[in-house]
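> tool_call: predict_assembly(chains=two)
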Amino acid sequence: MSGAFRIPRAGRLSQAKTARFSFDGQSYTGIEGDTLASALLANGVHLVGRSFKYHRPRGFLSAGAEEPNALVQVERDAARKAPNIRATVQELYDGLVAQSQNRWPSLAFDIGAVNDIASPLFSAGFYYKTFMWPKAAWKSLYEPKIRAAAGLGVSPDKPDPDHYSSRYAHCDVLVLGGGAAGITAALAAAETGARVILADEQADFGGSLRFETGAKIDGQDGYGWAQAAIAKLKGMDNVRVLSRTTAFGYYAQNFVGLVERVSDHLQSPGHDLPRERLWQVRAKRVVLATGSIERHMVFADNDRPGIMLASAARIYLNHYGVAVGKNVGVYTANDSAYAAAIDLKKAGVNIAAIVDLRDHPTGPVIDEARALGIEVNFGRAVIRAGGKLRVTSMTVQPKNGGGERTIPVDAILMSAGWTPSVHLFSQSRGKVAFNDETKRFVPGIYAQDCISVGACNGTDGLSASIDEAYAAGAKAAKDAGAKTAKGTKPKVDASESWSRGMLGAAPGAGPDKTVKAFVDFQNDVAAKDIRQAVHEGMRSIEHVKRFTTNGMATDQGKTSNMHGLAIAAETLGKPIPEVGLTTFRAPYTPVTFGAIVSHARGPLFDPTRKTAIHPWAEAQGAVFEDVGQWKRAWYFPKAGEDMHKAVDRECVAVRTNAGLFDASTLGKIEVVGPDAAKFMELLYTNPWEKLEPGRCRYGIMLREDGFIYDDGVVGRLAPDRFHVTTTTGGAPRVMNHMEDYLQTEFPHLNVWLTSITEQWAVIAVQGPKSRDIIAPLVEGIDMSDEALPHMSVREGKICGVPTRLFRMSFTGERGFEVNVPADYGQTVWEALWAEGQKHGATAYGTEAMHVLRAEKGYIIVGQDTDGTVTPNDAGLDWAVGKKKTDFVGIRGLTRPDLVAKGRKQLVGLKTKDPKVVLEEGAQIVADPKQAIPMKMIGHVTSSYWSQNCGRSIALALVAGGRDRMGETLYVPMPNGVIEVEVTGMVFFDETGGRLND
Amino acid sequence: MLLIRCPYCEEERPELEFRNAGEAHIARSANMAGESDDDFEKFFFIRSNPKGIIYERWRHIHGCARFFNAVRDTVTDKFVMTYKAGEPKPSKLPGAVK
């Protein structure tokens, strides 16, 4: 048995295929093809949720993506707990487990419902008014409590074990919406041979043909025609048909984002299938056939479970074979609700009464309803609904007042008319136009190559929609470059049609300020709240929206926007178009983060770059740190060593014997060409023309504003060839900066730039024994100090492979940087390592490298500089060519602010207590006793324990720093003030003699 | 995602392949060191930030790597045209432009 409310012979599902599921721990049986909503309704369950603010009991409003109420948590296992799933969209599978949300302790008895009684406190804008004082309470008290009370499900607390995929696609014609109009447009376009993609958010194509029993096309019932047409389209090579696929965003130049729900409907998806697939489609033409959404009637307590859209009841009956009640009332201002009543009546359900707000409607559906013996009342309103956990009655009154009559019902179907779904059109930046006659916003001015057809275009009637869609589909294909269609237009044999309905509040919605006649169910916005917003001074619909939160929930106001707008317009006494429509934004329905990030998570989130020597460091037990995308060996702990001990040992070893350091991540750019030196003159502050081949120079690169952009040692290999090094993190932007100037400002220079970062592995060998380690392995290079002095470079061979051997130092010791082709990096490293073992060498990591360079006052761009530091500020004025007439930054350097007194300058700091290591980033003051906020005169940029100096050392940017040598300054910290002395930047070997020792 | 025509590749390619490089047709002085404070301010700091047509530099960084110029409408985000670096600012723009 698949539910007491399943009607034999109604609907299209096979009764034989049952599926068991549970909701809030209770077991039920449904049928394959059900949604969770239809399966629950088949079992007589209407109460499925509690509302956001007032915790009012809620049931199903709709049968589709517009559902504001029936949000549930669907759980597959401990890691797969998806909150806020619309039960009207979730397809049933055997074993599905769902829970209701936002209730405690249970759905039927929810403590939070006290908010409903206390609701005068929670009227529009209450967040802004109520929780203002004391200010500090917002963060600690109000916000956490409000968030806990106004919940929308519980986020999963484990990493998402599902995987998601992503595809790009191109097509001539993208048709969005697979109802009668969309299918027709796709057929017309496909027949031309154009590449067509047709997408629909439902599992089943057909749109409103799924419930419109009166439609007949090409001799078949409408739904049957739709299925046949889809089968035909699926059989065509030039057509891709996507079901369960929601177009959520329409972006520039016909770029449309779609999410395909691949396996949420499957009992055991298996790991081969992604959960969802993101489609990023670029279409030459887009046909929008997104249909329309029925509106509810706005009257008192219109949110009671059992009160739903008339079209929803029709889908539940005609597609799923489920009656939404046994004694059903109807409240309408529109013909379409009659069709629902007629279908239910014919299926054996009692229709208690139809209450029609209109005075004298006429038409075949009204005649048919009467002929079936249904009581029809004109000019009357349902002024309130009875019942709490389920509707029990509707109270009817003539719309201009008079005697009340209460009719017992167990469900109420409502229809205030239909709102064209212009969401995607509006997202495409098209401008909507208000049709005053039909009271609808319809597509007006198009901004992109798209066209709207059918109900979303405000086109009434199946026949007119199909005519329009067929022409549009053929034209779209032709505009995209296809031939003229050869097919035949579908012929409409019979159809349903209905007139317009109403916007805004019905008589049962007040003016009483206590009446809760809901406009926006998901955010608990009632008609009175919108009136109140206007009375409190909101004039624009955008302000009304934000003040009341109307339309701001996850359903984006699909059912509420037009009602809210009409009530605001009425209260303002202005016509609707003057009040304006709020902007439709992507996504149309909520999109999971999983679908958006796809495979780009975990190790695939960002590329990981490893040097050629990485495996060796890993085998040695190095601890790595991330530097941009690079993994760099941070330190090499020996057994029992913590980081501090390892770094101390590495630092001492380098200055005692020697150290090997993997410097491969250094950015490297080869600057080649007849004008290479001229180019270097322009890009760096230093003079280059006179630098002899075979010599190196420390170069500084500025931005045009005069601030340091990058630095590095540059070797001149030949008159026309420079080997430029950059900071590890700066390599790409330096390359971009150089290319920019070369291509756009100095295109007359004959220069080629090549990134060689990954081509050369770099092994720094530093320390008094460094030459002894390298020399035995080198061929063709004279290693004597005379032939290879500090700051020189030679090409030759090491271990039989080519090398660019730099004599340079970032430690202050005699040092070399051995560049070898990356493929030989590890081999040469191992050879050097073996040689180094004879001389007591150690491997050192980036932390020791930082300490060693700080001991010598060598700066790191980006650590000791921050984009506001000039060469002079950094004590590097010597590197700026004084006779040069141009280089990038030359004018910036003479800006008044950059030559002003009192600029922050890099200096050394020594703590009075040598054991105290300052915190990098700590602020510096001149007078620690001054009142807070203190005047901060600088900050610590680098700070380390130096085992070689036997004390802590630090670099800092301090206002007027070089004039403060010997001064005592103060670093206020939470645990007390630290006294420091301003010193020079060099803490070790001030004369620099060790470079040549 | 926008499609941008690279004037060197002579193809429309997705925006992901490109990087914006700021306003175009701001020439660096041949006598940079001699610029007045006012002129340097105009050159380095002042940008037009128009509502409507803007002349910009773009780089096909994940393609041919060339810098080029583009005319774009800041209201619609639409590219009106692109042209090679060094070519003069177009005096006439194709199509109807606000």
